[in-house]
Amino acid sequence: MTNDIVALIEYYEKEKGIERIKIVSALEFSFVSAYRKMVPGADAIEVLRAEVDTKKGTTKIFASLNVVDDHDHQDKFNEVPLTVAKKKDPEAEVGGIVEFNVTPKDFGRIAVQTAKQTMMQRLRQAEKEMIYEEFKDRAGDVVSGTVRRFERNDVMIDLGKFEGIMPNRERVQGEDYNIGDRIRCYVLAVENEGRGPEIILSRSHPNFVRRLFEAEVNEISDHTVDIRAIAREAGFRTKVAVWSNDPKVDPVGACVGMRGARVKNIVRELNNEKVDIIRWSEDPSELVREALKPAELINITVNEKEKVVLVTVSEDDLSKAIGRKGQNARLSSRLMGWDVQVRKDETKEEQFKEKIGGVAHTLGEQLGITDAIAEKLTLFGGVSAEMIVDMPVDFLAISLEIAEEEAESILNRAKAIVAGDSIAEEVPEKAGIDAEPKLETEEEPSEEDSSEDASLANKD
To answer: What is the value of pTM for the model shown?
Structure first.
């Protein structure tokens, strides 16, 4: 009995940090509860108290009884006759109160077992009250702890004298924890409802990143650089907008650090989560340009009334601006507090379509086909007769969605055009310089014709 009580008091005093007076109070309450359960009729006693000797480890139970006249004694549990009271206290009088030791034999050994559950509840309540008093003003701080155990998907974290809980909703997707792991968490709240005070921890809250920057970057802790906005999708990407109150200090450079040393420490703590540090601007156009980097914005339209920013990017930069599953645009919207809408620049596409339309029209006139078929033909690479002649008939039929006879007809016309061009090109090559056309003149008579004409003249 002695060793059990002394060891219990020392454990809760040293390990849990609970004051000795509170531990003793919990023990006394539990022993009184045990007495009422063990002793028949003890429930009827109105005033009971326990006295624990912390040095000897002994416990005594005392009942306070009302002193009554010997003839008026009726309630044996709460009243004592005057003659009996005077044996205990010679100065006792009717109407007074006399305290009697009512501790049963072997009460200590049995009481410790019976009172254990009640005592633990009281001590846990005392511990929770102490947690609340110490942590009620620490909401928003970053604390370090060790993973102690798991309750379903919640993580219980040992903070030294206290224990915090990181609910599943506050965990970072993709992070795995093992018992004994040392982790840092953000104190989201200290709740004192329902089951008592609880320290709610988080690693997914945006302010966790804010506190890491404040601890790592001196310029932020001394307010030379301000964090104006943070947008985060925990485990994937975070955008931080910073502003310098000193024109000589570059806010982005201060947060990045020499060779990226500062931001690397933060990224390492966040398990390689991407962190984008951008320069804050009151101008929405400038801020959205910074937020959507590395995409190059062609045009920006700001609707201040509706708080909408419409940006236009090239087709090549569209995926960069939107990001994976829309992440970049979504985080930019949260960072600004505006609705950021990203659209593809269709100007070049329209110009391209106009060129294709012109080429298709010319090709259609050459081949004697409709503009619709000619446009399909150009989109499949048939921009000229020379390109079409190398295409198989079945390919043309399938691509243009026409019959093979019609496809073969188109192919023959293309071959005819190519063949005509080839003949026109071959003539000057064979004729050389003399191949140029001459004016029509009278044919000079040959030698035979000349001799015949001369003989006829002699006859005449």
So the answer is: 0.58
